[in-house]
Amino acid sequence: MMGGIEIIPVATAAELDRFIKLPSQLYAGDPAFVAPLVLERREALSPAKNPYFQHAEAQFWLARRDGRDVGRISAQIDRLLPDHEVGHFGMIAAEDDAEVFATLFATAESWLRARGKRRVMGPFNLSINEETGLLIEGFDTPPVMLMGHDPRYAGPRIEALGYAKAKDLIAYLYDIDHELPAAARRKLDSRKATALTVRHLDKRRYLEEFDTVTAIFNDAWSQNWGFIAFTEAEIKHMAKSLKMLIDPTCVAIVEMNGEAIGFGIALPNLNELIADFDGRLLPFNWLKLLYRLRRGTKTARVPLMGIRRSCSTSFAGGLAPFIVIDALRKALRAKGVKQVELSWILEDNRPMRHVIEALGANPYKTYRVYDKILPQ
User: Fold this and answer.
1) pLDDT in tens, the chain (376 residues)
2) What 8-state DSSP symbol labels residue 5?
3) Which CATH number fits domain 174-364: 3.40.50.2000, 1.10.10.10, 3.40.630.30, 3.30.1330.60?
4) Architecture of domain 6-170+369-373
5) What is each CA distance from 282 to 21, 81, 285, in whole angstroms?
6) What does pTM read for this prediction?
7) At 86, phi and psi to the nearest 5?
8) Domain ranges in the chain?
């Protein structure tokens, strides 16, 4: 007990369900909040099912006061991090109460410090390859799939506890009904003078194709801030999880002389389809979901994209992102999609931001990763 707040380490299935459902209770009055599917969250937070836990450990806590849950937080240690003195926090959700935030963070920091960590970063839910960052701009629109949503007060509450900005992540909104700007069209026309071609994913070779695109992704982003490569187990898990959502025509693979050098994957925005489910898939919402998936969505997200580093500074490598996004734009347009989120992009990734903005997309949400030196 701290100041009348009880901290409960999550240890049972019932406590995990309370942990998962708490944001839906706290943010029920926020019209932009979309409750995640409880079944999906149980799997994501399960050491037996999420291969993240093969190289990491985590602890979850609930904060309780006057007989009700008022907050939650997680702390994680990822053994793949190059800096072994860094630990992560995540899954933060709480009432707008300074004492609740302070108690939650004190608990997570103490757990990390006891395990030799000298610095804490987050939020990561659970890793940088899953939901990353705290929403600090763009509160009035709902999040797309695999992106977070937080109340306006969360950032100031965290900063009041000594956390400072480590990096901002930008989400772009792209209206695909608009024609390409002339400068972007000229870029794409110049492809005719190169050996670049673009194709869709071959679903008959689904796992092989998924291996190809994730190998490009791991290579393309390997030098970026905070990057942790997908492990083989994570790649297989992701391939299985996304198979129902991936349309081969919404995967663009750029090849040069027959070799894949870049790719992009667009997914239907699942949040658009489940916004009225309140996190429940059973007993009948799964039928609604299947029907809505067949009908299609008006929004989508491009969560994975990359160009091999060996090509990134060449003329062809500079063209490849334009080719990928234009191919995805055409495929999504044919499906009736109106808007696509391109996310997330590091604030200082100027080359990629230049490409996205040249195509006519606009930044509309910002997520922040925080950093703090732990007092010893």
Assistant:
1) 666 899 999 999 999 999 999 999 999 999 999 999 999 999 999 999 999 999 999 999 999 999 999 999 999 999 999 999 999 999 999 999 999 999 999 999 999 999 999 999 999 999 999 999 999 999 999 999 999 999 999 999 999 999 999 999 999 999 998 888 888 888 888 877 678 899 999 999 999 999 999 999 999 999 899 999 999 999 999 999 999 999 999 999 999 988 999 999 999 999 999 999 999 998 899 999 999 999 999 999 999 999 999 987 888 888 999 999 999 999 999 999 999 999 999 999 998 999 999 989 999 999 999 999 998 7
2) B
3) 3.40.630.30
4) 3-Layer(aba) Sandwich (3.40)
5) 15, 37, 6
6) 0.95
7) -100, 130
8) 6-170+369-373, 174-364
How far is CA 17 from each of CA 43, 48, 89, rounded to the nearest angstrom?
A: 11, 16, 19
- The radius of gyration of the chain's CA atoms, rounded to the nearest angstrom, is 21
DSSP string, 170-213: EEEEEETTSPPPHHHHHHHHGGGGSSEEEE---GGGHHHHHHHH
Q: How many residues does the chain have?
A: 376
Tell me, what amino acid is at 66? D
